[in-house]
Write a structure and sequence with these properties.
The complex is a heterodimer of chains A (about 180) and B (about 950). Chain A has about 180 residues and is α+β, with helices and mostly antiparallel strands. Chain A has helices at about 5-20, 130-145, 155-160, 165-175, and strands at about 25-30, 35-45, 75-80, 90-95. The chains are: A alpha+beta (about 180), B mainly alpha (about 950).
């Protein structure tokens, strides 16, 4: 690992420990030789319903809009290349065993790789983007898929054709990935 | 439109109404009126008139107009060239005059005037006003307006978008002024002005000003001179808030490390003073304790190395004791890392010690081996105390109180004894509060794990003993579960860090002393934690197989309990997966257990259980695999046989999922997809030691059932999706027990896809080609399958509109074609020529689609097609013939796409295909380009 890569990841880890968004986790994998800073396990909580600034004022029986992702925590792996931060990390849905289908989401490839512009070296990646920003970006992507960049057919087709069935499937998925 | 200058009294009237009206529409129009007024030249005259008003609001607007005009309409001052200098001086004199006149009046007006004057200075530097800060000192000498000005200047400079020479000059101006500013602040902070009320305001203002300069970035030497004066004011209630802000800013400065020792001495002295200690238990004024905590936390997060090195110092010990009350999790993690860092606390090298007769240290710090030993001993004490507190923090409250948390109040008292919990308390509703507690527990769990690296075996000893004590405490209330649960939760948190060979404490935990005594009824949370604890130590069980069965005995009854099933099934899966080799001897017991408990387990959990048992079956020798597998699958197959449409649709889906899980389980954990060529095929047959009649029987049954499902549910996309998933994974598995043989699956796919055009059939076909494609013996059948799938696809998807309407079919069809290209490309050329042509026409049409999924797959396929690697000359010739026939069309589509017909995000992939063509067919590409460009030119001429 290059000095720049190591220093940056050490600092990213420190910053993450110091301040990270609510409900998320991100930690380098532990190996027999200590921490493997190039491989992180992350957990991304599904977005909650619209965050009204005035929660206090809303009666408890008021049903404000919810997202089908809420109550789920989606475990992924984040792999950094040797030339990080020149190149972006890769995000992969953690396959819990063999042949488990990838995350049901229009922008997740069947291999599990997440397709997001800020994670693409030729599109939106900038070395200044922090781990926190990436994870928030992925969380955003969960509930706001980008139909212009389909990565798997199943989720993409359902998202386009039948939003109710799509939401139901996502809700089931969130249930299977509890916090 | 001409703007008629209003009179001052009219404007004053509008200002009154702006602030006093309760009608939002009126307020909005009043605001717009004033904003419009600011744009007029007349506003330069209006501003001083408003400043002369009796109303503070009008004065404020007057000052504001000055600020806005200077910032946005500076060149408006230059209307009359002859009066430029006069005008410029006039503005400065006006502003200074008004500052003096209002200096005993309203603060907000003075602040606004200072902002206006700063805006003026930033515009006037360097030509008109070069030394504005010294001038200001001269004009105002001292007092509040001066402090106000000195406070806003650095803030405004940071905010202003200065460039070039002006930026350099302004920054220089500030740098030059630092000694004078700081000497003024120092004398104001250290002296008493005679009037207590005024003195307080002055000191608060000074501190605020100092903070502004720290934020701007001042050389540390200058700051350092003031630290004593600031610290002295920390213990004064009235200045405590502002001092905390300054100190927090001060110790967060990255450049502080060079002065670390002196700063830390002073800060520790301040934070551990008697006054400060008293504040930790001061209920009367929470804000003082809060400020202290903030300061201590910031200190800890910046000076953890210093604390580690000076671990034995009395003030550091006091500081840590106070931090134990506060419990900021982040600090303990940083401290643990420092303590484990050999560059900070040297490691005593025992091996060398034996040789050299003295400790050898590997560190750059000046800690003696003796000291480092003491530090380690001391850190054990501190961290031991820490984990005791951490455990108590994550203990659930009594049931009644937990129910009360729905009101969202108790959380504060219970959880946030420390004022610095890592969670923001935004109490919304009960779910949020309870969820916050769960997340807090996870964060604490992380801290417990970090502490393990300090305490190691001591921590295990502590928690295991504690669990035993908790279970055995005399007179224990039978309904009490919270304390034991929190202990088990802590043990679970360190699972990742504990050595798999640990054989002192974990045997006690998983043996009779703890798990043997855990309740089997009620206590859902306790049992859930106990269940997931087993799963988290799956790797430990692998090295200690003698404890597996008793753990499973605890797990299995919970599988059929809806409240526990998820954690039980997850742990069951983890243990079976990791310990499959140790469990092979117990496969009959596991299968029997499944037969008994299975009917009572919910589908999602049952999937896990089936996969777990299949994991163990996988580890059996091939001749023993079939029997248990038959027992498990017979149950599933039986249910499917009994399920008749339409009521049993969900049953069918569930059973298909079970079969899929079974396939997953029997796949070896480190295995890759097997690809059958001639030799491997024989090998696979040889490996099958199954009783042929049973294996064939199972295969026939599966074929019969899947064919039935495919026929009955052909229209139901969801059922077909699950069916295809099972078929695909079945043919992937190593042992062919759950596979439908090629001879049967190929026709099944063809017929079914013809019946209803679900893309899932094409996906399954792609899997079939992956596995069997490189085996020559299937050539004819594979070609027939491709021909059948192609003709069905092309009949169903006839034009570009159809392609855009069925992107999933287009996508899956291209995947099938790509697999043929990769595995058996020659088969493509043995198709009837009409059909081959249709495929090419279809692919070229795909390059012009607007639908992203279909377009993407078409572009990928074209890239694969052109980029094929071929060694066979005849084959190469074949490809070239195709390209000569279609190359022009392909290139036309690519160029049109790149030229703007397709979304921009597709340009790189289109360009890469184009690159492949031009690289491989150089001459022809030139010719095609000439043709295409001349056609384009002709079109242009025609249009013009």
């Amino acid at each position: 690992m290059s000095g720049i890569c190591k220093a940056r990841l050490t600092e990213e880890r420190r910053q993450w420990r110091k301040d990270h968004p609510y409900g998320f986790y991100a930690r380098p994998v532990k190996t027999e030789n200590g921490l493997d800073l190039l491989n992180w396990q992350v957990g991304i909580p599904g977005k909650k319903g619209v965050n009204h600034w005035c929660h206090f004022l809303i009666p408890s029986n008021y049903s404000y809009s919810r997202t089908p992702w809420e109550n789920g925590v989606f475990k992924m792996t984040m792999t950094f290349p040797e030339d990080y931060p020149s190149k972006p990390p890769k995000f992969k849905w953690l396959l819990m065993g063999k042949f488990v289908p990838a995350l049901f989401h229009p922008n997740v490839y069947p291999s599990g790789t997440v397709c997001l512009s800020i994670l693409n070296e030729e599109e939106g990646w900038k070395p200044a983007i922090t781990i926190k920003q990436i994870l928030l970006g992925v969380q955003n992507l969960l509930d706001e898929p980008n139909p212009d960049s389909p990565a798997q057919s199943d989720a993409y087709m359902l998202f386009k054709k039948d939003r109710v069935a799509y939401d139901k499937r996502i809700r089931q998925q969130a249930k299977e990935n509890p916090a | 439109m001409e703007f008629q200058p209003p009179s001052v009294s009219q404007v004053e009237q509008i200002i009154v109404q702006l602030y006093e009206s309760i009608d939002p529409h009126f307020q909005k129009s009043a605001q717009e009126y004033i904003q419009n007024l600011q744009k007029q030249q007349y506003a330069w005259d209006l501003a001083p008139q408003l400043l002369a008003s009796q109303s503070v609001n009008a004065q404020f607007i007057g000052a504001h107009i000055f600020q806005v005009k200077i910032s946005r309409d500076w060149y408006g001052l230059f209307i009359n060239d002859l009066e430029i200098w006069c005008d410029l001086k006039w503005v400065r004199t006006e502003l200074l005059g008004w500052i003096v006149r209002h200096s005993s009046g309203s603060n907000i007006v003075v602040t606004k005037l200072c902002l206006a004057l700063t805006a003026y200075a930033l515009q006037a530097v360097p030509d008109i006003w070069s030394n504005f800060i010294p001038d200001f000192f001269e004009m105002l000498h001292s007092g509040l307006p001066l402090l106000e000005f000195l406070t806003v200047v650095p803030e405004e400079v940071l905010r202003a978008d200065l460039i070039g020479e002006r930026k350099a000059k302004v920054y220089q101006e500030l740098t030059n002024s630092i000694p004078r500013v700081f000497s003024t602040l120092r004398s104001l902070l250290s002296e008493y002005c005679g009037n207590p009320e005024h003195d307080l305001i002055l000191k608060q203002k000074c501190l605020r000003c100092l903070q502004s300069w720290i934020l701007y970035g001042v050389p540390f030497d200058s700051l350092f001179l003031l630290i004593d004066n600031v610290i002295n004011l920390f213990s004064h209630e009235s200045t405590n808030d502002s001092v905390t802000d300054v100190l927090v800013e001060f110790i967060s400065q990255p450049r502080i490390t060079s002065y670390q020792n002196t700063v830390c001495e002073k800060m520790l002295c301040c934070m551990t003073s008697d006054w400060a200690k008293a504040q930790m238990v001061n209920d009367a004024d929470e804000s003082l304790a809060k400020n202290l905590c903030r300061l201590m936390t910031t200190f800890g997060e910046n000076f953890y190395n210093y604390i580690a090195i000076h671990f034995l110092r009395q003030d550091v010990i006091v500081y840590m004791e106070m931090m134990l009350i506060e419990m900021p999790l982040q600090f303990w993690y940083l401290l643990q890392e420092s303590l484990s860092d050999p560059d900070i606390i040297p490691v005593n090298n025992i091996d060398n010690d034996a040789v050299n007769g003295e400790d050898t240290v590997t560190s750059t710090s000046h800690i003696t081996p003796d000291e480092s030993q003491k530090i380690r001993e001391m850190s054990l004490v501190v961290f031991r105390k820490l984990v005791e507190i951490l455990r108590s923090k994550i203990q659930y409250p009594p049931d009644i109180e937990w129910a009360e948390w729905t009101k969202g109040i108790y959380m504060i008292n219970y959880l946030f004894v420390s004022l610095f919990a890592p969670i923001l308390i935004i109490l919304t509703n009960s779910t949020d509060v309870k969820e916050q507690f769960k997340i807090y527990r996870r964060n604490v769990g992380d801290t417990v794990m970090n502490s393990y690296f300090v305490l190691r075996d001591q921590m295990l000893a502590f928690f295991v003993d504690l669990a035993i004590t908790q279970l055995n405490s005399p007179g224990r209330n039978p309904s009490q579960w919270q304390d034991l649960e929190s202990t088990l939760f802590c043990i679970k948190s360190i699972a990742e860090a504990v050595d798999h060979n640990e054989n002192v404490y974990l045997p006690r935990l998983f043996g009779a002393e703890v798990y043997g005594m855990l309740p089997l009824q009620g206590h859902v949370r306790l049992r859930n934690t106990a269940l997931s604890l087993i799963g988290s130590y799956a790797d430990w069980f692998k090295s200690h197989p003698q404890y597996i069965l008793s753990a499973l005995n605890y797990l299995i009854p919970a599988l059929s309990d809806a409240e526990l099933a998820l954690s039980a099934a997850t742990s069951f899966k983890e243990v079976c997966d990791a310990c499959r080799d140790s469990l092979v001897g117990d496969i009959d017991n596991l299968v029997n257990m499944y037969m008994v408990v299975g009917p009572h387990i919910q589908p999602k959990e049952k999937q896990k259980v089936i996969e777990s048992i299949a994991d163990v079956i996988q580890a059996l020798s091939p001749d023993k695999m079939l029997q248990p597998l038959l027992v498990v699958t017979n149950d599933i197959i039986q249910t499917m046989r009994e399920a008749n449409p339409p009521q049993y649709r969900d049953v069918i889906i569930t059973q298909l999922e079970y079969l899929t899980c079974c396939c997953r389980g029997i796949q070896p954990p480190d295995d890759k997809v097997i690809i059958l060529d001639d030799n491997e095929h024989e090998l696979r047959n040889e490996e099958n030691f199954f009783d042929p009649s049973s294996a064939v029987g199972l295969a026939n049954t599966l074929l019969e059932i899947t064919s039935n499902i495919a026929e009955i549910w052909y229209h139901d996309s969801e059922v077909i999706e699950y069916l295809c998933k099972f078929l695909s994974i079945g043919i992937h598995t190593n042992s062919s027990i759950l596979s439908i043989p090629f001879e049967m699956i190929a026709p099944l796919i063809q017929i079914s896809f013809q019946r209803d055009h679900h893309s899932y059939w094409l996906d399954t076909a792609a899997k079939v080609v992956t596995i069997y494609g490189s085996n020559n013996r299937y050539g004819t059948a594979l070609r027939d399958m491709l021909a059948a799938l192609t003709s069905t696809t092309i009949q169903h998807v006839r034009c570009q509109t159809d392609m855009e309407q069925y992107p999933d079919i287009v996508n899956s069809y291209f995947s099938v074609l790509t697999k043929y290209l990769q595995k058996c490309p020659l088969l493509l050329y043995t198709l009837p020529s009409d059909m081959f042509k249709s495929i090419l026409t279809f692919s070229v049409a795909g390059l012009g689609l607007q639908e992203r999924l279909a377009l993407k797959s078409a572009v990928n396929f074209m890239g694969e097609f052109i980029g094929q690697n071929y060694k066979d000359e005849q084959f190469a010739k074949g490809v070239e013939n195709v390209m000569m026939a279609c190359g022009l069309e392909i290139m036309r589509e690519l160029l049109l796409g790149i030229g703007g017909r397709l979304p921009r995000s597709f340009v790189p992939s289109l360009a890469s295909v184009l690159h492949k063509i031009t690289g491989r067919y150089i001459e022809a590409s030139r010719e095609w380009l000439n043709i295409l460009l001349s056609q384009a030119l002709n079109t242009l001429i025609l249009h013009s």
